[in-house]
Amino acid sequence: MSVRWRMQGSRQWLTGLWAGALDLALPPACAGCMAPVHASHALCEPCDRRLPRLAVQTCALCQAVPVPPAEDAGAELCAHCDFLRSPLTACLAAASFSGDVASWIHRFKYPRSGLGGLDPAPRSVVDALVMEAADRVVGPLPDLVVPVPLHPSRLRARGFNPAGLLARAVARENGLRFDPVALRRLRATESQTGLDRDARRNNVRGAFRTQRRWRAPSCVWVLDDVVTTGSTLSECAHALRRAGATTVIGICAARTLGTDWVRSDPGGTGLGRTGLDGSRSESEPAR
Ligand SMILES: [Zn+2]
Ligand SMILES: [Zn+2]
Question: Is residue 20 part of a domain?
Answer without folding.
Answer: no
